[in-house]
Amino acid sequence: xxAPLPSLxxxxxxxxxxxxxxxPSPRLHPTDALAAAAQSVLGTRSAAPLQYGxxxxxxxxxxxxxxYLSTQESYGGPVAPDSLFLxxxxxAAIDLATTLYATAGDTVVVEEPTYYLIGQIFIDHGLNxxxxxxxxxxxxxxxxxxxxxxSESPKPKLLYTIPTYQNPNGSVLPVQRRRHLIELAxxxxxxxxxxxxxxxxxxxxxxxxxxxxxxxxxxxxxxSLGSFSKVxxxxxxxxxxxxxxxxxxxxxxxxxxxxGGGLSHFAAxxxxxxxxxxxxxxxxxxxxxxxxxxxxxxxxxxxxEFGETVDFTPxxxxxxxxLTFTNGVNTDALLPAAxxxxxxxxxxxxxxxxxxxADALRISLSLYETDELAEGIRRLGRATRNGRR
Length: 389
Ligand SMILES: Cc1ncc(COP(=O)(O)O)c(C=O)c1O
Known about the structure:
Layout: E1 17-18, H1 31-43, H2 59-70, E2 84-87, H3 90-101, E3 107-112, H4 119-124, E4 128-135, E5 138-139, H5 141-149, E6 156-161, H6 175-188, E7 191-195, H7 211-214, E8 222-227, E9 239-243, H8 245-252, H9 255-260, H10 265-276, H11 279-306, E10 310-311, E11 320-325, H12 331-340, E12 343-344, E13 346-347, E14 360-364, H13 370-388
Parallel strand pairs: 1-12, 3-4, 3-6, 6-7, 7-8
Antiparallel strand pairs: 2-9, 4-5, 8-9, 10-11, 11-14, 13-14
Helix pairs in contact: 1-10, 2-10, 5-6, 11-13, 12-13
The chain binds pyridoxal-5'-phosphate.
Pyridoxal-5'-phosphate is lined by residues 22, 89-91, 115, 162, 167, 195, 197, 227, 229, 234, 239.
């Protein structure tokens, strides 16, 4: 008999605690909230949820989402409904932004390290991907300025950045660098795709505002991306573009929206119902509390297990801890032994186009509860020590 086709993206070998996956814990799926939303959306027998939706996205959600974001400390100001366009999640939005703002052969700049699954979207579009260094404060905008001034480097059409709780290194780009980046985009004529899916997931002080809130360029040069994947459920495939009206218009006029109507329209009606009922707000509070506790627990567990042999900075939000070994461990070489010890992770080289970060790895706090995170970290420590004998 052939094995049944899989239901989910995630796949983990039996007996392994795979700290590599940035997926939410099954216990945290807001099943009750979405059941209540579905009841309210379908219970009235209205045609609205099941019809083709408006091209910019379901109007009531554009309004309720803008009102919600406007109250958020991490947004730092009002968000207008006409600055939003609903998407089928950040990944699909990056694909669409690339369709609209680049053509095959163009150059896209990404930070090193960057979210490893995004590179393939740019390659699918035939783009030339060029890395720029990032440090503990995110993208090094001085290094970017140097690259842009150099007559040898191709002029980019796009720059892809994760300014808030970066995947993988957890860094947060300070406001001065955000402004510098916008100034560089204006001067050199490229568009910034700011992947801000963790913007609402802060566990203490809020991060600086999304890049779109700082974009003062004529016509706009920033496409900020939010996602319901990290605050409600990834299965909804729902997110938003946040940008200047001219950029929003480009998305509204895209062929895919013209033919299929608003993206993920049914999911948008559900998300709107959760906002109307206060359930999304409650869910975000729960996620901040639960992930915030895990975030603190993981910092203590790592310190206890690794002492000075690993460098890391608690990110303050998002999903990821980025560990850099100070004692010569090669995380690609360690991986088979780690799996044998019942633990896995994403090695640093996965986040680099040039094979860098062989001394680093990424773990996620999202999938497992603290006791399993603790066991995974203990196994990782054991594998590291065994590997060095
Ligand atoms: C930086 C970043 N961007 C995008 C995504 C995927 O977002 P979405 O589910 O909205 O496509 C992830 C998920 O891990 C992510 O970490």
